[in-house]
Structure to design on (87 residues):
């Protein structure tokens, strides 16, 4: 699943690929400024939201990893106690 930012970037790439070349050039293109401005404006608006979402995911990842470490350490300690009792 692509984020909206990735979708907008893909739209910009497709838009650029569909533009006509300037006469006598195979590297310069003619661009509909209004359409390009609209795509870039939407990209600017979506960027902060995406960054916040990614930051939240990253912070949750750390919480999950810390919880898993604590559980693993508790299991190791419990196993060690059980092993000591058996010996």
């Amino acid at each position: 699943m692509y984020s909206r930012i990735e979708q907008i970037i893909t739209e910009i790439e497709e838009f650029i690929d569909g533009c006509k070349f300037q006469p006598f050039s195979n590297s310069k293109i003619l661009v509909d400024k209004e359409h390009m401005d609209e795509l870039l404006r939407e990209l600017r608006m979506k960027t902060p939201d995406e960054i916040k979402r990614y930051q939240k995911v990253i912070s949750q990842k750390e919480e999950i990893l810390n919880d898993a470490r604590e559980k693993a350490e508790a299991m190791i300690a419990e196993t060690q106690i059980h092993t000591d009792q058996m010996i």
In short: The chain has a mean pLDDT of 89. DSSP finds two helices and no strands in the chain. The helical segments are 4-18, 33-86. Residues 4-86 form one domain.
